Recover the amino acids of this structure.
């Protein structure tokens, strides 16, 4: 009793749950789906109590005037048991619906965060820092969340039929996908080095497993092992760089590092060394040129829907970290890192474009094209202006929707080919399956940056930011590599529409999910190209950072 | 700035010098009277299962190792938490319940997938 009276309560930290509400929902969904995965015949035993808890939580939230998250919790709590009821003997369909509703809920919660916290009513943003500075709820976080959640939401239906056809539709796919998404969104919000590293590991570990999903396929095994070993080395280098940053500045928080580095008398050599090592680690994740060696093999070997997810979402999350690191923590060393990063960008654009020219395999070619696009996105980073920042965020969104559409069409073609899709397999596709060929051509035109598509607006904004910041030579290289890239994108279109095939049968009918996924991404490619204003405005507002 | 880390470097040097030094001194100075019991491998009082060099053991041990790691980390968090449990009050209890709950889901999943069955 005496002891109990002596005890003093510490100041309990105030956890701002709302600042990471979307990730919270997705983590909970991933855990529940893992339990559903092992429940086999007793799925209702897991789904029903979860539903009761979620609905109860939702009702409590609504009664305390937190209406939107409450409604999301209620909807998800009802959707899971409903899915179990509706598809009693199709576990993977329950998983897909459970994950899909959770991702849609996460998008809604992101919008709710914008309306209640970030937005200032006039379309601008007031950034907020949360969890004692570990999280920054600002423009980068908001835009990364949108890109990543949208990508995952499109990848789910794209991959469902594909995984079933290849008999790798294991129940762990959706939980791992959700965890990877949580890691990516957290990477976009991370405002200190530890959070950044943990987020990076969460997304990487989930992706290593997803890459090796087709474990009977040797190329998938190889891709997984290669990605894991090289990714682990990259993580180690990154961690060493972070340690050096801490030595030089005595802080883990990015804004504090930023203000310390700007002071005269700080040990600039050590912090620059740390920054260089961290650049290696993150350059690996986004596949910038000297650190890109894993990309073609991993993109080719991984199941195609996972490749689409990696290409679109990992790039967005990785660049979110790059932007925050350079623009928040190291604007003081700008004269040092901007030229280096510009050279990496130029090398990525040229190398990716020229090597993609000689590829015969479609997935491999798209892998090299993703290296090229990492270069374009970097132009916005080296500009070190608000225009460059919003340009990069916007570019990543347009790249995500275009590459999703392209990989979706690859999945549709793989249904006939059973495995690799080489360039010659596309001959005559324009005649036998005009819809798939047309959409593939559209997405490739967007990747090439042709006017009526999203890719054009993306490239235009990034190049404009580069010119304004005085990086004329870099933009010239960007335009040159776009011309080279346009050649191989257009060559694919030519093969599809101008050559004739030996095999006149159309592609087997796509599953409903695949059709939906491809249609949604194609619509987005056109919509973002014709009506970019709404999102461009958001991207402009996203230049508000926690510094 | 790096000079602050000099004591750590010195500690490393002293520690390795002590380890190497004591082994070297005992092998140089100590008496040498081997017998079969002294030469046999020490495995916590059990009979050694196999000769150490070149022994193959089942790959299934990786699961045990991973499980150990998970609960090891859990214990690492639980000790300091137990120390300040009173001060943290309900907040601490809730946070630890969350942490243990998430680990628990992983553990249930592992059992459900047969991770604890040897064959």
């Amino acid at each position: 009793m005496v002891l109990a009276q002596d005890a003093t309560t510490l100041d309990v930290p105030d956890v701002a749950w709302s600042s990471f509400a979307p990730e919270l929902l997705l983590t909970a969904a991933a855990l529940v789906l893992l339990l559903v995965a092992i429940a086999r015949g007793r799925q209702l035993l897991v789904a029903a109590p979860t539903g009761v808890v979620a609905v109860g939580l939702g009702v409590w939230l609504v009664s305390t005037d937190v209406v939107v998250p409450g409604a999301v919790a209620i909807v998800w709590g009802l959707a899971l048991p409903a899915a179990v009821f509706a598809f009693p003997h199709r576990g993977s369909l329950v998983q897909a619906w459970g994950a899909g509703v959770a991702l849609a809920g996460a998008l809604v919660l992101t919008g709710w965060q914008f309306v209640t916290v970030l937005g200032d009513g006039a379309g601008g943003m007031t950034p907020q820092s949360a969890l004692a500075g570990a999280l920054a709820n600002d423009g980068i976080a908001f835009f990364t969340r949108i890109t990543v959640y949208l990508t995952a939401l499109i990848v789910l239906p794209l991959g469902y039929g594909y995984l079933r056809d290849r008999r790798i539709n294991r129940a762990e796919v959706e939980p791992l996908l959700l965890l990877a998404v949580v890691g990516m969104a957290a990477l976009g919000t991370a405002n200190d080095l530890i959070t950044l590293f943990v987020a990076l590991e969460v997304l990487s570990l989930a992706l290593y497993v997803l890459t090796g999903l087709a474990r009977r396929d040797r190329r998938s095994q190889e891709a997984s092992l290669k990605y894991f070993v090289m990714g682990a080395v990259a993580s180690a280098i990154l961690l060493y760089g972070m340690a050096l940053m801490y030595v030089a500045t005595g802080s883990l928080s990015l804004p504090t590092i930023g203000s310390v580095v700007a002071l005269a008398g700080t040990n600039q050599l050590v912090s620059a060394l740390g920054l260089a090592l961290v650049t290696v680690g993150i350059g690996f994740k986004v596949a910038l040129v000297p650190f890109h060696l894993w990309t073609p093999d991993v993109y080719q070997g991984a199941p195609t829907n996972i490749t689409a997810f990696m290409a679109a979402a990992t790039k967005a999350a990785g660049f979110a970290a790059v932007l925050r690191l350079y623009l928040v923590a190291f604007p003081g060393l700008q004269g040092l890192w901007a030229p280096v990063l510009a050279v990496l960008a130029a090398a990525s654009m040229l190398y990716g474009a020229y090597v993609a020219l000689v590829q015969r395999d479609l997935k491999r070619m798209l892998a090299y094209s993703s290296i090229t696009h990492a270069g374009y996105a970097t132009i916005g980073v080296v500009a070190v202006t608000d225009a460059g920042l919003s340009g990069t965020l916007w570019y990543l969104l347009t790249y995500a929707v275009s590459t999703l559409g392209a990989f979706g069409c690859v999945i549709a073609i793989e249904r006939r080919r059973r495995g690799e899709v080489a360039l010659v397999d596309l001959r005559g596709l324009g005649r036998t399956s005009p819809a798939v060929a047309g959409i593939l051509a559209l997405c490739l035109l967007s990747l090439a940056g042709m006017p009526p598509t999203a890719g054009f607006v993306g490239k235009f904004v990034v190049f404009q930011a580069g010119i304004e910041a005085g990086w004329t030579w870099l933009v010239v290289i960007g335009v040159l590599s776009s011309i080279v890239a346009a050649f191989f994108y257009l060559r694919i279109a030519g093969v599809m529409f101008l050559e004739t095939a030996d095999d006149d049968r159309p592609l087997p009918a796509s599953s409903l999910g695949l059709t939906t996924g491809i249609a949604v991404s194609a619509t987005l490619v056109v919509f973002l190209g014709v009506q970019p204003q709404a999102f461009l405005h958001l991207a402009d507002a996203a230049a508000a950072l926690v510094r | 700035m790096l000079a602050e880390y000099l004591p750590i470097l010195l500690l490393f040097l002293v520690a390795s010098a002590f380890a190497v030094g004591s082994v070297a001194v005992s092998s140089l100075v100590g008496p040498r009277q081997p017998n079969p019991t002294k030469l046999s491998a020490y495995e916590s009082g059990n009979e050694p299962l196999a000769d150490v060099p070149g022994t193959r053991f089942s790959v299934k041990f990786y699961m045990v190792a991973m499980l150990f790691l998970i609960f090891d980390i859990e214990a690492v968090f639980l000790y300091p938490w137990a120390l300040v449990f009173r001060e943290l009050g309900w907040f601490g209890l809730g946070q630890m319940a969350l942490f243990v709950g998430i680990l628990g889901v992983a553990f249930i999943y592992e059992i459900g997938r047969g991770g604890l069955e040897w064959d």
